[in-house]
Design goal:
The complex is a heterodimer of chains A (about 475) and B (about 300). Chain A is of the alpha+beta class and about 475 residues long. Chain A folds into four domains: about 10-105, no CATH class; about 115-160 and about 445-485, Kinase associated domain 1, KA1 (TATA-Binding Protein), CATH 3.30.310.80; about 185-280 and about 415-435, no CATH class; about 285-415, no CATH class. Chain A has helices spanning about 10-20, 25-40, 40-45, 50-60, 65-70, 80-110, 135-145, 165-190, 425-445, 470-485; strands spanning about 125-130, 150, 155-160, 190-200, 200-205, 210-215, 230-240, 245-255, 260-265, 270-275, 275-295, 300-305, 305-310, 315-320, 325-335, 340, 345-350, 355-365, 385-395, 400, 405-420, 450-455, 460-465. In chain A, the strands form five sheets. In chain A, strands 4, 6, 10, 11, 12, 20 and 21 form a seven-stranded antiparallel sheet that branches. A five-stranded antiparallel sheet of chain A has the order 1-23-22-3-2, with helices on one face. Chain A has a five-stranded antiparallel sheet with strand order 13-14-15-18-19, with no helix packed on it. In chain A, a hairpin with a 2-residue loop joins β8 and β9 (about 260-265). In chain A, α2 (about 25-40) packs antiparallel against α6, α7 (about 135-145) crosses α10 and α8 packs antiparallel against α9 (about 425-445). The radius of gyration of chain A is 36 Å and the shape is elongated. The two termini of chain A are about 65 Å apart. In chain B, α4 (about 95-115) packs antiparallel against α5. Chain B folds into two domains: about 1-145, no CATH class; about 150-305, no CATH class. Chain B is flat, with a radius of gyration of 21 Å. By secondary structure, chain B is mainly alpha-helical. Chain B has helices at about 5-35, 45-50, 60-85, 95-115, 125-140, 155-190, 205-235, 245-265, 270-295. The chains are: A alpha+beta (about 475), B mainly alpha (about 300). Chains A and B meet through α2, α3, β8, β11 and α9 of A and α7 and α8 of B. Bound molecules: protoporphyrin IX containing FE (HEM). Protoporphyrin IX containing FE sits at the interface of chains A and B.
């Protein structure tokens, strides 16, 4: 295009030009390949949505590289503007391609098949033989029996079959749009949160019960009514040889709109409250301890959630006693099946509570709870504190330190519940099913045209298949045999 | 765990490997001696050669090779089933089990296809690939029979994994064909096929065959990905989380969609299409090998 031609290219025709480019097959192919390639970095670089801790570690290990990665959203690939740009363009291209084709296909389906071309001998399947004049009628019968759509001429028939292929193809592409709508709907109007609940305690579905809660961009409250889950019992079984978990089950009493039910939750069997589902996500232990001051009065009592560190549920946690004077804290680890190891000290060799032991150090001073800086419940900042010694406790034992005592009463399990509401998932599922059905028709369907023409006593048969679908040869042989058999 | 079934399973796998090795030798013999290359003949026309060459010479070897393949497959199937019995669950709990089941579907796909097409020229590659897979599995990936981790206890495991393994077997078969295409295309452009490859169909047939294989399993792969999403929803509370395994399943899906588009809508054929097919197949292999063993994420069932 030369300079002088440019001004003539008006705004509208420019738009039309861009649209035509965007919806061309070549662009669709390029966008598809770009989509595949764009998905790669997110599987090799840790992502914030799935593994925030690994991202933090990456920042610590390679600060400059991490900054550059971050500039290109490489830690949030699937939410990044460039990834979105690719799939949005792809879907615009898809819509621009599929909608006109749908309209066209709809018309073609109701129109007659195209007329018989003059030169049949150029087609892939072509035969001529001597007939007796009844062939046209016989062919019509045969086509009708095989449910071809036909166009009857004076001396010829044009028959077509296999529109389902195109229908399936359009159906498939349209259902991809439905999947995208489902995914988008879920992320805008859904919610997802987690809560740790000790066995024997209750979870009430209100925002304050959650340890973490993420609402969709257009969600402003929990979607479900405030149901209650009381965790009565939790059992995990392990394989004694590999120490891997073999099964989890959790017994709960749920209250939902005045309906009280006993239910059993397993890993692949979540609880359902309307659209909200509750999953059993993880488990761990919480020691119940009693801390007394030097006068013997209780300054702290209750379960403290410990965080598992390995497959044998070695867990760490902290017991903070702000009501003691001065304040006291215990930096502790809990070993469900305690064993001494030469190199690592106390370790756990099995995830069940076979020989539980709590090891800890005692600190006194300022716990820093009033400083305003948010603190991990599992750790204590001991910079302002003095160490009063080390201790270890089995269940039922009491340890004395300068200024008080601590008793390990009992160890109870806790469960981590994941509470999810995804209002888009049924659309996505529906789209997925429709996509498979559409694909089956699209890829297994055979669209072909067959023509029969009579010329004096000569019978001419020819056929054409789209996409070289196999089997046409056989079909033609069948038709010809039928016509000859009746001759 | 039932020790004796585990023992029987291992034993069957070794027996299968021995028979596959014999089948490989028979195929090699057949490939080497089936066709005597005519001197100075125009070797670009596969059909021409059928007239000038005598297939009867090694028909016996070919039959023996195929019979051995069937026997080996039966032994392998027995080994896979026995593995399942020893575990008390379907034998898809770790990478060793995925591999032996994958090898089984790969060779079974070949044997089924053999009933319809003359694919015996592929037998050499097939027996070799299966031997390699089983050898790697039993030496590097072997783990004692063990119960499943809880998230794997689901009927969706059976459905999702069966679909994925079958798709994988056929994707790899398509890759073998596309690889054969590229090799022979190169050979022919340099003057002619090597003698052993006279029997292999024409380039056009190979080109179509790899497309047919992909078009045939693409819906199944789509189904496998969706079944995985349904399972993930039940087990983890989300149907899609861009976990590395999921991401690569998606990449494979998109790559094959691109391949189908390139062929059907843009009209790619031959070399370019074969390369794209091989690229798409590599994403599947990458997912299986790299992400299973070294990847992080929720799909860490390799047992390694
Ligand atoms: C998410 C992206 C897309 C996916 C996964 C996808 C997938 C597919 C598949 C699997 C086929 C079947 C190929 C065959 O018949 O062998 C196909 C065919 C086709 N697609 Fe797409 N497609 C996508 C986007 C698009 C776009 C953007 C366009 C238009 C610009 C398009 C237009 C077509 C056309 C025209 C056919 C040919 C159907 C035929 O003649 O048989 N597709 N697509």
């Amino acid at each position: 295009m030369t300079q002088t031609e440019l001004p003539e290219l008006g705004f509208l025709s420019l738009l039309r030009y861009i649209w035509r480019q965007l919806t061309s097959m070549r662009t669709a192919l390029i966008l598809l390949m770009m989509m595949g390639i764009a998905a790669i970095p997110g599987s090799l670089i840790p992502q914030r949505i799935s593994n925030p801790i690994a991202v933090r570690d990456f920042f610590a290990a390679h600060p400059t590289r991490a900054q550059w990665y971050d500039r290109f959203s490489l830690f949030d690939v699937y939410g990044s503007s460039w990834f979105s740009a690719i799939y949005i363009l792809l879907f615009i291209s898809l819509i621009g391609c599929v909608l006109p084709r749908t309209v066209e296909h709809f018309r073609a389906m109701r129109a007659e098949p195209p007329a018989t071309p003059r030169n049949l001998n150029r087609l892939e399947q072509h035969q001529i033989f001597e007939g007796n004049g009844t062939e046209l009628a016989e062919a019509t019968r045969w086509f009708k029996k095989k449910r071809f759509r036909i166009r009857q001429g004076m001396q010829d028939i044009s028959a077509e079959k296999g529109y389902l292929r195109e229908t399936g193809n359009l159906f498939f592409h349209l259902s991809l749009i439905l999947i995208l709508i489902g995914v988008g709907f879920g992320s805008l109007f859904g919610m997802r949160g987690e809560a740790i609940v000790n066995v024997g305690e209750r979870f009430i579905n209100v925002p304050t019960s959650y340890d973490s809660l993420a609402l969709g961009k257009l969600t402003n409250d929990l979607n479900a009514s405030p149901f209650v889950i009381e965790v009565n019992d939790f059992v995990a079984t392990y394989n004694p040889k590999t120490n891997a978990a073999t099964d989890y089950s959790m017994n709960v009493t749920t209250t939902d709109e005045d309906q009280v039910r006993e239910q059993l939750v397993k890993v692949n069997k979540p609880l359902t409250f309307g659209d909200t589902r509750v999953y059993l996500q993880a488990n761990g232990y919480a020691p119940i301890v009693t801390v007394r001051d030097s006068t013997g009065s209780v300054v702290f009592q209750g379960p403290v959630t410990f965080l598992p560190q390995d497959g044998n549920l070695r867990s760490i946690g902290s017991i903070k006693v702000p009501d003691a004077n001065p304040q006291v804290g215990f930096v502790a680890s809990l070993l469900p099946t305690y064993q001494r190891s030469e190199s690592d000290g106390g370790i756990s060799v099995y995830p069940e509570l076979l020989r539980p032991k709590m090891l800890f150090s005692v600190w006194s001073g300022d716990l820093g709870l009033d400083s305003g800086v948010p603190q991990s419940v599992y750790r204590i900042d001991t910079t302002e504190m003095t160490n009063l010694g080390l201790g270890s406790l089995s269940v039922g034992e009491t340890f004395q330190y300068p200024g008080g005592t601590i008793t390990l009463e009992k160890i109870i399990p806790w469960v981590n519940l994941q509470i999810v509401d995804d209002p888009g998932k049924s659309y996505a599922l529906f789209g997925g099913i429709a996509a498979i059905l559409g694909l089956i028709f699209s890829l297994y369907g055979r669209r072909r045209r067959i023509w029969v023409r009579i010329n004096g006593t000569q019978v001419e048969v020819a056929a054409l298949s789209k996409n070289n679908a196999p089997g046409l040869e056989k079909e033609i042989a069948e038709l010809v045999a039928h016509l000859k058999g009746n001759a | 765990m039932d020790k004796s079934w585990a023992y029987i399973s291992n034993y069957s796998i070794y027996v299968a490997m021995a028979i596959f090795a014999l089948s490989f030798l028979a195929h090699a013999f057949e490939t080497a001696f089936a066709v005597r290359a005519p001197k100075n003949a125009d070797t670009t026309e596969g059909t021409l050669l059928t007239k000038t060459l005598d297939y009867g010479r090694t028909e016996k070897a070919a039959r023996v090779a195929t019979v051995l393949m069937v026997l080996a497959t039966v032994a392998l199937a027995f080994g896979v089933i026995a593995r399942g019995l020893s575990n008390g669950h379907v034998p898809w709990g770790n990478m060793y089990e995925f591999s032996i089941t994958g090898a089984l579907t790969f060779v079974a796909a070949y044997l089924v296809a053999l009933r319809k097409y003359d694919l015996r020229w592929l037998g050499l590659f097939i027996s070799f690939s299966v031997l390699l897979t089983l050898g790697t599995a039993i030496t590097l990936l072997y783990r004692d029979s063990a119960p499943l981790v809880p998230a794997l206890k689901s009927t969706w495991l059976v459905i999702h994994v069966v679909a994925a393994i079958i798709s994988g077997g056929i994707f790899l078969l398509a890759n073998v064909v596309a690889g054969a295409y590229l090799y022979l295309e190169n050979a022919e452009s340099k003057g002619g096929r090597p003698g052993w490859a006279f029997r292999v169909p024409t380039l056009d047939v190979l080109d179509q065959l790899s497309y047919r294989l992909v078009a045939f399993v693409f819906p199944l792969w789509t189904f496998s990905v969706i079944a995985g999403a349904i399972w993930a929803e039940a087990a983890w509370g989300r149907y899609w989380g861009w976990d590395p395994k999921e991401t690569w399943a998606f990449i494979t899906w998109v790559a094959y969609a691109a391949y189908l588009h390139a062929r059907v809508t843009v009209g790619w054929r031959g070399k370019r299409a074969a390369w794209l097919c091989i690229f798409a197949g590599s994403t599947f292999l990458f997912n299986y090998v790299y992400i299973n063993i070294w990847g992080t994420g929720k799909h860490t069932y390799s047992g390694l």
